[in-house]
């Protein structure tokens, strides 16, 4: 018992002695050098105080991460996460450049190498957070050895590239977060078509969720909002070495970002200084009936309706506040419970045309529509059936 209690303490002490080096007082810095580190309560701040790098945790989660966020935006907006899949779970935590010149995050017990530089290269002389939000490792000649822009999380910032390197096969892709509180890679990713057709796909696992349409020199055909205007300079670059899409802002005072959100939607947002909030400029795919179960259980989606979703006859929103705010994921619930097995008050079905089967329908071999109805009626967990064409609810 004593030993168990003792050993973490010993390792903690050794760890503190060998690594902990504080930066000079409280001076703001944008760089660290080999042997230096920042602790959980310290941050790096880019020279123009645009971005900040440090440790953070999300919501009620006890996991914590190293990431980059906007320094001046009060709504903490994380644009990059160093250790998405390797959260730290207990204090302390430090970020340092180790002897091999790699950027390393450590909690004393485990450490995670953010960069993976081979030792043959000239070693890192500094790590600097730039005003673009890019964290770069440079050698003594100021050549860039590694940069965070090469490892995007879910955010696409001005100056970043999305695409692929034809030589190394390396791709610059966005990957959604797993949840609001977990930046680990979620199920959506946005990448360049590997067939080099100059279009981007949002993938859900290995299935294609959305396509941008082909770049025509000015815009992507399926993103009409992406007009070449006075704010953004979009470009698609392709040559024998690499193919990528990038953008810049003509007016540096504008703060704008693209993000691949939890639902697999790519959004362009701009910060509104007056309102102190992010404004959605455009999003794709647009919320529409093609998105499976967009209206939740027993919700009905009509492309031409505003709002898009309504409850089926006899149903009401499960969470009416959310529903009215356009969050339909809670779906609808029955006003009156089913009479299932109550022979005296038999349930009836309602014909609903133009419906689609659920993702996991159950098929039965029955001879007729009547038998199908009967089979459903006799099973209390069966709520709808389709025989041939229309769905009966
Ligand atoms: C955090 O925990 C509190 C109390 O347990 C709870 O009320 C709140 O909803 C939680 N927040 C999130 C984002 O889960
Ligand atoms: C390493 O740095 C030296 C000078 O400091 C330079 O001459 C040399 O080209 C560099 N090598 C690489 C691979 O960058
Ligand atoms: C997209 O580019 C095409 C070709 O240059 C152009 O004709 C079209 O007007 C552009 N669309 C928008 C919305 O700007
Ligand atoms: C737009 O971006 C491209 C590529 O980065 C650049 O060559 C071009 O000069 C930019 N255009 C303007 C008007 O800044
Ligand atoms: C990628 O490189 C190969 C060989 O180096 C070349 O044949 C091919 O055309 C290149 N692809 C593009 C899109 O340039
Ligand atoms: C492609 O890469 C080679 C070798 O790094 C370089 O010499 C060449 O200029 C590059 N081509 C383009 C179009 O960037
Ligand atoms: C009743 O329906 C549910 C859902 O469709 C199904 O999982 C279950 O196997 C059915 N039970 C019987 C006895 O058919």
TrEMBL record:
Q: Where is the Apple domain?
A: 340-393
**Which keywords does this chain's UniProt record carry?**
Disulfide bond, Signal
Question: One biological process GO term for this chain?
Answer: recognition of pollen
Keyword Oxidoreductase in the entry? The reply is no
Q: Does the keyword Disulfide bond apply?
A: yes
One Pfam short name? B_lectin
The UniProt record lists the Bulb-type lectin domain at: 29-150
Record InterPro entries? Bulb-type_lectin_dom (IPR001480), Bulb-type_lectin_dom_sf (IPR036426), Pan_app (IPR003609), S_locus_glycoprot_dom (IPR000858), SLSG/EP1 (IPR035446)
Q: Where is the signal peptide?
A: 1-25
Function, as annotated, reads:
Involved in sporophytic self-incompatibility system (the inability of flowering plants to achieve self-fertilization).
UniProt protein name: S-locus glycoprotein
Species classification = Eukaryota, Viridiplantae, Streptophyta, Embryophyta, Tracheophyta
